[in-house]
Every structure is written in structure tokens, then in C-alpha cells.
Amino acid sequence: MKRVALYSRTARPPSVDAAPKAEADAARRPGWPGRFWGWTARYRSAFFGLALLAVAGGLVFVLSQPQQRQLTQEDIDSAVLHTLENKTLPSRPAKAAEAVRQSVVQIRGYGDEEEADGAGKAKPAAPPGAKPKAGGKPRDKGKDKQTARNEEGNAPRHEGSIGSGVVIVDSGVILTNFHVIAGSKRLKVTFFDGYEADAEVVAIQPDKDLAVIRAKSIPDDLPAATLGSSLDLAPGDEVVAVGFPFGIGPSVSSGVVSGLNREFVSTEGRHVLTRLIQFDAAANPGNSGGPLVNMSGEVVGIVTAILNPTNAGTFVGIGFATTIESAGSAVGMPPF
Questions:
Q1: Is 288 designated active site?
Q2: Total tally of structural domains belonging to the chain
Q3: Residue 72 covered by a domain
Q4: What percent of the residues of the chain are helix, what percent strand, and what percent coil, each to the nearest 5?
């Protein structure tokens, strides 16, 4: 006989296997995660195709760019040679002279104050050969032209009447030769821009033919020269001499150091100058007191004398300069 099935009225506990099924049902319910993954599943092929196409396009772009070639020494030498062939560069002496040009001054000595009237006014110096101004001292017709020019001040009557100097302190302190200022009752300096001013003597050192003067007024933005060292010089090194030979200038001449530690006896035989720099850059009366400059634009000496076995008093290839170290002792302060 078939037995009747009995059923309990107690609710059955959920099956353990039902939990994963419930979670799967929840994942399939509508919502942004479900929709997102459903969309990616639908368009997954197209999505990966576009990504692959983008990567391929970027790779093609990178490979199509021109690659920069690394520069070689041959490339650099070729570029420098091209510049030298197509562009004119200033010479080393020109750059050295330009470095001190604004620091070089002309110095004139006068026997009485009337000859130096107008000092302190900004005006250019009279060019060589210029005629005297109206009301000035008339020229003596009985004198030759050269003598007349000398008396007008366009060429020196003697070495001490005109010379050069170099500004070593921007307040107007100037280094020059003692024989440039010796015997003068009044000094007048002309600066690079034509400004003229009276000057006074600060210190002298006759045994080294050196003197320091100070201008009573100065132009705006007056630069001082850079002082170097003669200890770095060697025979054959290039130098330039800057000054006012025969009152013309500033004039530049270039040459080399011919020798070091030379001696020179003055014309009168009163002084023996020692430790001099011998050079062959052209120097003439009026260059005295001007700077001797190395190729770095530094003042390494003060042009002091020229040697000429005749009585002409002009340059024959041998000039002498006092070292800047000796000049520093004349100033009273070492340049280093």
C-alpha cells in the first residue's frame, strides 16, 4: 500500500548552493556596472580594434620624424670656418686697445695759467693743423710752419710739454710719467669724450719716472683701466701702446714684447731706469705716460722712453715701459 507523503510546516533554510545563484542574479539586475560590462561585451571587438589602430598610428608618427644626428668635431670645425670666412672679426690688438680706450687721457703742461684757460669745459681738443681762434695769439709770419704749429700746441715743443696718461681710479686719478709733468705750473687733461679739466699732482717718483695726478673734474661714467701683471709676460707676447704721439690721438700701435728686465739711462744721465719692458710697438714723443696693454686689455706697463742713437728723437724700433708693479708703488698702493 502506498504511503502518503508527510510535509513539515517549518520553513526550509536556504540552501548553501543558493548563495552564488543569488549573487549572480544580483549582478544581472539593472545598474551602471551591469550596463558597462554589457556594453563592453557587445562592442569589445570594435573597442580593441580602435585601440590597436591608435597605437599603430602613434608608432608610425614617431618613426616618420627625422632623427637628429649627433654633432661631431668635424661639424663644429666646419661651422667655425664658415663664420671666419664670412664674417670679419676684430683683431686681438683692436680688442685690447678698445678695452682701455676710454681710460686714456692726453696731458698738457703749461708754463703760465693763461695758456690753459677754459679747462673744465666739455669741448674737443683742437685737431692737428687747426688754426687759432679769433683773438688768439697771432702767428709770426717770419717763422716756419712747423715752429708755428709747435707754438699753437698742436705738436709738442719737447717731451715734457705734452704726454699721455691712464685713469687708474674712476674718481679721476691718473698715472703718467714724471717727465710729462716736470716743470709745468699748470696741467690740463683731455678725456676720451673731449672733456677738459685742470689737474693737480698727487705723488711723484722721479727715480722711476712716474707721477700720479688727479683731475679736478671728470666726465660722467669715467671708466678706470684694468691693471694686469707684467710677471705673466714673455718675449714674443703681443702688446699695444695707446697714447698721443705728437698730440695726435688717441693712437694705437701694436707689436710684441722684445725683452724683459731692461735698463735705460736718461738722456741727461741723471737716472737709470731698471726692470723695464722692452717692446717694438711704435712710440714717439707724446706717447710717454700712456699704457702698454696685453691682449686681455690689461695695463701691464707705462710707456716711458724710446731709444734712438741719433738726435732725431723718433722711434726706431726700441721702446721701454715701466712695469705696472713699479707704477703701483708710485701710487702708494699695489695693483694686486
A1: yes
A2: 1
A3: no
A4: 30, 25, 45
**Coil vs helix vs strand at 309:** coil
The number of helices, as runs of H, and strands, as runs of E, in the chain is 8, 12
Cell digits for 13?
533554510
Q: The whole model's pTM is what?
A: 0.64
Which residues constitute the domain of residue 289?
A: 94-331
For residue 57, being part of any structural domain is answered with no
Q: What are the tens digits of pLDDT across the range 166-187? A: 999 999 999 999 999 998 999 9
Among this protein's residues, is 179 annotated catalytic?
Answer: yes
Of 209, 253, 254, 280, catalytic: 209
Higher pLDDT, 42 or 125: 42
Residue 196 binned pLDDT confidence (cut-offs 50, 70, 90): very high
Which of these is catalytic: 230, 251, 288, 326? Answer: 288
- Looking at the chain, the whole-number percentage of residues with pLDDT higher than 90 is 42
The DSSP call for residue 244 is -
Helices (H), the chain: 18-27, 32-42, 44-64, 73-86, 92-100, 145-152, 178-181, 324-331
Kindly name the residue from 161, 164, 179, 253 that is annotated as catalytic: 179
CATH number of the domain encompassing residue 303: 2.40.10.120
